[in-house]
Structures are given as structure tokens and as C-alpha cells.
Design goal:
Blueprint: E1 3-4, E2 11-12, E3 26-28, E4 31-34, E5 39-41, E6 49-51, E7 64-69, H1 71-81, E8 86-91, E9 96-98, E10 101-107, E11 115-121, E12 125-129, E13 151-156, H2 168-181, E14 187-190, H3 196-206, E15 213-215, H4 217-228, E16 236-238, E17 253-256, E18 273-277, H5 284-289, E19 294-296, H6 304-314, E20 318-324, H7 326-335, E21 339-342
Parallel strand pairs: 5-6, 6-7, 7-8, 12-13, 13-20, 14-17, 14-18, 15-16, 15-17, 18-19, 20-21
Antiparallel strand pairs: 1-2, 3-4, 4-5, 9-10, 10-11, 11-12
Length: about 350
Amino acid sequence: MMLPCLCMGQTCQGISADVPTSPLLLPRPEGLYCPAGDFYIDPVRPVVKALITHAHSDHARAGHGAVMATAQTLDLMAIRYGEDFTGTRQIAEGLQRIGDVTVSFHPAGHVLGSAQIAVTHKDMGTTVVTGDYSRIPNPACAPFEPVPCDILVTEATFALPVFRHPDPLAEIRRLLASVAAFPERAHMVGAYALGKAQRIIMLLREAGWVDPIYIHGALERLCAYHIEQGIPLGDLRPATMERNRKAEFAGQIILAPPSAFAATWAQRFPDPVICFASGWMQVRARARQRGVELPLVISDHVDWPDLTRTITQIDPRETWVTHGREDALIRWCQMEGRVARPLRLLGYEEEAD
């Protein structure tokens, strides 16, 4: 049977006739809205009350009246947006009663403080909004926790069968092999400031790199916060280019946000090898467009095998798919006899990867 899509008024395949008439969450222009609790999850516009899954800017925005999130996400939002990023803030701990629902936050394995949000109503069951998540162990944050639910809202960033992320430690060893092969050159690694940069640092330490790691100024405060939270990043030093110091960066690893490579800043270092750590580096055209010499396929999102494994493991009554390649995953669900629908939420970008 074909029923209207929740958000676009169009017709979607694979939506069953038992869709609740008053679902726990409704897509609105602001984001996912919970009528029974009168709050939004990861809204893209200012709202009265927002529940935030993690501190990446496509999910966490300033200007809401009140924000509930994990303590680390609240801290990271304050670092990124200032202490006055919201009117009031509330730490998500245990079960929280909001209106006619209870909510709880569970680790998502994406970045420090990232969480899935479970919303439960006595008559409508439990819906879990995963936000962005990863199943690969990440020493810079708590591991993903499968949460039983009736409706699973999942991202679809890499929801195509071609996306199968390699072992991240093997990618780091490729980086170290390049450093050994070109000791006269600096290796500049593009990594997003929150989450990816700290993960790269931890992978380098796990691979045996004990030398200092140089970081762009945009990473300093976020790395310092990770250290405050007990993440052992080791010896980090500012990647500042002072007079007659260019030769000191030969054979060194320097981390910076990808935007830094568009400026002349990167060219100050000795014959730099431009690297970029992202799941998108599996797409060669993207690497070429960015001028990347050494692409590192390291992602903080689930790939196709982990995405389908998660749906199979949790076995929800329905799967709602958002911000990504929705069609392929919905088709896979249909072939598996599962009910799935697209949310087609707007406003979510690629910052987390």
C-alpha cells in the first residue's frame, strides 16, 4: 500500500498501513518535532526547546531557548558558540520526563559526547534518533550502544553498498609509511576540528607515533578539552611558522581543518604532502577535487555493512532514513521485508566527516 510521506506530501514506496496517526516524532521545517513533549531533536532553526545529539554544527546550533544534551556536548557547544549559546541548558542524565514522554541519551560512538536519543510514550512505544553514529571503536569517545526500539531513525551518509570503510589503523600506517618515505616533507592532514582530529591523534599514538603532533590554532581549544576529559592525546604543539623554522617541520605530521588548505597557510611548510581523513576519500574524484595527494579513508559514520547490521540487530518495526542516500537503504529494507520511509530532512551537511 502507498501512503503519503510524512514530510513532503509525496508518495513513497514501502510505508505500511499501520503508520500511527499521532507518531512520537513529526518532521517539520525546524527539524524532528515531538508533540507529546513539545521539543525538537537537532533542529536547524531556533526553537523553544531542543534536544541535541552531538556538537557538530549541522546538528547543534546556537539560539535555542533551552538545550538538553550530554554534559560534554553542552561544554563543546559553549566552546564553539560561547557561553550564551542558549537561554538555559540541562544535562541529560538517566531517564528524563518531558511532558507525556520519557527521554534517555545513549552513546553513539561518533564524537565526544555524541548520543542517540530514545523517546518513549506509553501508548506509542519507543523511537530512537541515532543522530550520527559509528560502530568502529574510537578511543576518543564512548562506543555505540544498540538501543531496542519500535522506530529507528538512522542517518544514511554512506548508505550505498560501495562504501565499506577499511581498518582506520591500516590507513594511519599508510600515512606513517609516507612520512618514512619522504622525510624531507611535511605531512599536512586535513581533519575536522571536533572528533576527527582527536581520533587521528589517538590512532597515531596507537600506531606508535610518539613524536610531537603539530596542530592548527583552530584545533587547540577542542584538543585541550579532550585532554581535560581524560583523552590522552600526548604531546601537541602549535603549528606556527616562525622565522627560519621551516626546516623543523620536515618529517613531521601537522593537523589542520580542511579549510586551512585553501589558504596559503599550508604552503609555508616544506613541500607538504596534502592528506585528508574522511570516508569520502574512497571517492577518488573527491580527492582530486581537493588536491589531496594522500587520501585517508577514515570515517566517523557507519558504512554500508555496519548500517545494515545495525538495523538487523535492533530489528525495529519501522526504519526512518534521513540526511544521506535514502533510496538505496529503503530499497534494502524492502528487500528484507522491513518497513522503511525517507524523512528528507534538510540542513544536515558533511561536517562530521
